[in-house]
Each structure stands twice: as C-alpha cells, then as structure tokens.
Specification:
The protein is an all-alpha fold. The chain has 32 helices and no strands. Among the domains are: 121 residues, Alpha Horseshoe (Leucine-rich Repeat Variant); 83 residues, no CATH class; 127 residues. Helix 12 crosses helix 16.
C-alpha cells in the first residue's frame, strides 16, 4: 500500500503504479479525512481528472463529490467539487447542482462553478432554462457567462425558449427586460446589417415566424418595459420590432390610443424608432398631452420619422406672439427644434420655404427657434434670410441669428457683424457672439487663404484690420468682448495686431492682461518662425 502521506499530485502522477482504484481510494480518503483544506481541494481536483481512466467508478466518485458540494462549508472546496462533477459528465450531478443554485445565499464563485458544471454535463431545454433564470443575476460575471453560453445555441432553439420564458408570470420585470435584450442581441449577431432584413428572413425563416407568432407577447412586454435610460433594451426592442415590420405596424399604432400612460409613451418611442409614417397623424393629434413625457416622446418620434408634413404642427407650438409667455419647461422648445432639424436632415433636397416664411412671424420665440434650426442645418442658402434677422431689436432672435451665421460659415455677413461691433448701442453679449461668429467663419474659410486666393485674402485682411482698430479703441469695452477680440487676433492676426494687443496689455481685469500677453507671444513666435524659413530659403 502506498504511503498515506502522499500528496494528491503524486498519487495522480503514479496512478498506474498504484493502481487506478487504489488511487481513487487514496484521493477520496484525503478528501474525507484530511484537515488540510488546500490538500483536500487538490485531491478533489485530481479525483475529477482521474475518473476518465476508470468509468466504472463514476458513480462512486459522484457520491463523494455530491456530499462535498452539499455539506462542505468551505466555499473553495465546494467550487472544486462542482468543477469535478462537471468533469464526470454524470447526469445524476444535475440534481445537486441545481439544488445548489436554488440556495440564494450561494457565493458568486460557487454559482459560476455550478453553472459551468451543468454546461459540461448536459445542455438541453431544462438546463437552458436554468441559464435563462440567471440572466437577472445581481452578479455581472454570472450574467456575462450565461449570455455567452446561450448565444452559442442555434438561433431557432434559443429564441423559442426565450419567448416561452417571456410569457412566464413567475419571473420579474427586470428579468423579462434581460430576455428582450438577449433576443435582440441574438438577432444582431446573426444579421450583418439591420438596414436590410432580407438576409435574416431568408436564412432564418423559423426565427421570424416564431417572433411573429409571439408578436402580441413581444409588444406587450416591450411597451411595458422600455426605459429611456436603458439604451441596450431600447436598441434590442428596436431590432426585434424592425424585423417584424411592417406586419406589426398597425398593432403598434393602435397602442398610441392606450389609456395606460407607460404603454402609450413607449408605443410612441417605438413608432419613432421604426419610422412608421402612418403614425404621424396619430402622433400630431397627441402633441398637446397633459403628461410632458408623452409630449416629449411624441416630438422625438416625429423627428425620427422625418416627415416634413409634421413641421408646421411642431412649429405651431412655438408660435407664441407674446414673448413674455415663455415655456415653463424650456427643454420642450429644444426638443421641438431638434426634431425639426432631424426632419430636414433626413430629407435631402427639402424645400425650406416654410421656415423662411416664418422668419417674418410676429412671434419672437418662433423666429429665434427657426434661426437656431437653420444654423444647426448649416446650408449656405440660409445666409441671406438669416442675415435679415440682424436688424431685429429682439436680443434672443439677433443672438441666434449671429450664432447661425457663424455655423454656416459664409463670409458675406462679416460686414454686417462688424457693424454690430461698431455700434456703440450694441449690447455686450451680442458683440461677443458676433466676434465668436466671425472667428468661426474665418476658421471655416482659412484654407482658401492657404490656397493663395488673392481676392479672398484681401477681403479677410481688410476685416482683420477693422477688428484690430476696434481692439485699440476698446478700453472701456466689456472684458468678455475684449477677450474674444484678443483670441481672434491671436489666431488670425499677424504683426499689425501687435500694436492693438500692446494697447490692452495693462487693462483690467487680469484675464484681459493674461490673454493679451499670450496672444503677443504667439504672434511673435509665428513671425520668428516665418523669418527663420525665409532665411533658410
């Protein structure tokens, strides 16, 4: 009989010499009687490794490992027992493994070891369901493991089982959300591009049929579970329903009339994501909802659908003649402007006459909003209509018009912007915004100077000279206006700008002096670099 003090590694290495059955007996004895947990753990590991050489002792080893898994207190040893049971591939192991998972106090490492053992032993529908039950685990490592194993199944098998579980009343709402996410993830993994559904419909017709058979369940669960903050859920739900469109479009539109606030709001989100144009009329009729969340969802959906016919209805909300009657929820205005911008951007070659016509509206709110929208779109054709807004007395309209011109980048309005700077009655904020707009226009067009466009260079040089003179005379100007002028000259000025910067280098407050010093230094470095290159030439 071999030495009873042998280490598990030695027993395993010399199993042929000692005899396989004796080796199993020695390892089992260490597991059951030794006080050294590290040694016991090692014995369990090698017991799992030796069993493939002696299948007839599989049941005997199973009994030993089952006892350890159920009764042992040390977590590391229980984990090793689970690993060893997985190596046995004995279906009798499934019962104690499942029992261990049902103990809610089970350690995360133990749960993971048990799941891996189940996976190695058998992975049919009952075991797949066990994995699905772990999708809402509080442990991210568990969730990631079960997801990775589930997506390895055939799509038809996985999606059918997921759909069956989605109908269960015994699982939580969070769990159902995770199931929806996994369905979407599986669909995305088998289809290269969801812009074209033909591939998946041809390659996996049974998947599509299964989803269509369960469309009522899917719609109910999705419209109850969607949350704006859960981007993964929204993306998965969109993938699923886009695959089923247009067959489900009418069903989704019907949900827009639901009395349930949550279902209605989420149905609105869905019609937007699916770009269902037939829903536009229903959406417009619900724009003025007592729940702001529903109104916002409606506005966003109209923006995503991109139907130009909805623009008048959206802008009508902004058409307020009395400027004092401002939005209590200012965010609503930005939702509308963003939606209108999206609508036009999704319609290349769209006619903007409706927007231009409203620049003559009596509503200052409408005019400033349209100026903002046109600036965000940024087409050159908007330059003249927006430039006309510079004559308005309303500061918000004028400010948005100036910012829009800066974004569009056409050089023609620079003269008008300089007129604002030269006007002693111009408000300081309008002046600052005008300088920033000129800066943006110069930045967008500076490449034309580098291309030696002589006439264009002459025009911009003339504007720079005017801004230099403005800085020279700006002693009493608002500090923020002066800083904007200094930043402009720092980037686009040259030697002629130094005199203006030196005139302001001792101004108050300190921020003006700092920016002046930095600008002077940068221009001098630029001059020195140029002179150095000329010398080399």
């Amino acid at each position: 009989m071999p030495d009873s003090n042998l280490l598990p590694q030695e027993i395993f290495d010399k199993r042929e010499e000692y005899g396989l059955e004796n080796s199993v007996e020695m390892l089992t004895d260490i597991i059951e009687t030794d006080k050294d947990n590290s040694k016991r753990k090692s014995a369990i590991k090698f017991l799992g490794g030796i069993i493939k050489y002696i299948p007839k002792l599989n049941n005997e080893c199973f009994t030993t490992l089952e006892n350890i898994l159920i009764s042992e207190l040390n977590i590391d040893i229980k984990c090793e027992a689970a690993n060893a049971l997985g190596k046995l591939k004995n279906e009798k192991s499934l019962k104690p493994l499942k029992w261990t998972l049902e103990q809610k106090s089970a350690d995360v490492d133990l749960r993971l070891a048990v799941l891996k053992a189940i996976m190695k032993t058998k992975f049919k529908e009952p075991q797949i369901t066990i994995f699905i039950n772990e999708l809402d685990s509080e442990y991210s490592s568990i969730r990631e493991y079960v997801r990775s194993q589930l997506v390895g199944l055939e799509p038809e098998i996985l999606i059918n089982i997921l759909l069956d579980n989605l109908e269960s009343d015994s699982i939580s709402n969070k769990h159902k959300s995770e199931i929806i996410k996994l369905i979407g993830y599986e669909l995305s993994s088998i289809n290269i591009s969801f812009q074209d559904m033909d591939y998946i419909k041809v390659k996996y017709p049974e998947v599509v049929s299964s989803l269509l058979r369960n469309k009522a369940v899917l719609l109910e669960q999705i419209t109850r579970r969607l949350k704006n903050e859960d981007i993964e859920l929204i993306n998965s739900a969109t993938l699923i329903l886009r695959l089923l469109s247009p067959e489900i479009n009418k069903d989704v539109i019907k949900l827009l009339l639901s009395d349930d606030f949550i279902i209605r709001k989420n149905a609105i989100t869905i019609v937007g994501k699916l770009k269902i144009k037939d829903a536009v009329e229903s959406l417009i009729s619900g724009l003025d909802n007592i729940y702001s969340e529903v109104s916002v969802a409606t506005i966003e959906a109209l923006g995503e659908i991109g139907d130009v016919s909805s623009v008048p209805e959206l802008l009508d909300i902004l058409n307020v003649e009395d400027i004092s009657f401002e939005y209590t929820d200012i965010d609503m205005k930005f939702y509308i402007m963003d939606a209108v911008k999206k609508i036009y951007l999704s319609n290349k070659g769209a006619n903007y006459d409706y927007l231009f016509s409203n620049l003559d509206s009596n509503s200052e709110t409408l005019k400033e909003s349209i100026a903002f929208i046109l600036g965000e779109i940024g087409n050159e054709e908007f330059t003249d209509p927006i430039t006309k807004l510079l004559k308005t007395r309303n500061l918000d309209v004028k400010k948005n018009a100036i910012i829009a011109l800066g974004k569009i980048g056409n050089v023609n309005p620079i003269t008008h912007l300089i007129e604002i700077l030269e006007n002693p009655n111009s408000y300081w904020l309008i002046k600052k915004v005008a300088i920033d707009a000129i800066y943006n226009i110069f930045q967008r067009n500076w490449y034309r100077i580098k291309e030696n466009n002589v006439e264009f260079k002459r025009t911009l040089t003339k504007h720079i000279a005017t801004l230099i003179e403005l800085l020279k005379k700006s002693e009493a100007e608002n500090a923020k206006v002066k800083v904007s002028l200094i930043k402009f000259l720092e980037n686009f000025g040259d030697e002629p700008a130094l005199s203006a910067l030196l005139a302001r280098v001792n101004d108050f407050p300190r921020i003006v002096r700092i920016h002046c010093s930095n600008a002077i230094k940068k221009i001098e470095e630029k001059i020195e670099e140029r002179l150095g290159l000329d010398t080399v030439d």
